[in-house]
Design brief:
Blueprint: H1 2-26, H2 29-36, H3 40-44, E1 47-55, E2 58-63, H4 64-77, E3 80-90, E4 96-104, E5 107-118, E6 121-131
Parallel strand pairs: 1-6
Antiparallel strand pairs: 1-2, 3-4, 4-5, 5-6
């Protein structure tokens, strides 16, 4: 009896855990699609009023409009050959983030995207590219 109860609790815990991970990933789906398509215009729809962009440690804050142009330039020089998020997580404060792998003809990048809540919506706060 105890063993069956433990198995049932373990199954319930795994179902809840997978639902949480799936829910975290859903918020990043349109962001993933924009990055896969190399569309700075589509990606900019999810920018906050300011966005921190980092390329190999060179960090700068931009307005949403400026960040769109910076990403347009990046995609032009490094058009996507493949992209996917490989890990989703959240800080203790509930700030969601995702880690992905961006592949272009000129090389591969580890990509970190952090979201934040603004006026009840999740928006992109930070994008960090690190060449592998």
């Amino acid at each position: 009896m105890k063993r069956n109860l433990l198995h049932a609790l373990a199954i319930i815990w795994l179902v809840l855990l997978s639902a949480t991970v799936h829910a975290q990933g859903e918020g990043f789906t349109p962001v993933r699609n924009a990055i896969r398509g190399g569309s700075s215009k589509e990606l900019a729809q999810y920018f906050g009023s300011t966005v921190e962009l980092s390329f190999d440690g060179d960090k700068q804050s931009y307005s949403a409009t400026q960040a769109e142009f910076v990403m347009k330039d990046f995609f032009a020089k490094n058009s996507p050959a493949g992209f996917d998020f490989v890990h989703y997580g959240g800080s203790t404060e509930g700030t969601p983030y995702a880690v992905g792998k961006y592949v272009s003809k000129s090389g591969a990048y580890r990509m970190f995207v952090k979201m934040k809540s603004a006026q009840g919506n999740l928006v992109i706060d930070t994008i960090d590219f690190t060449k592998e």
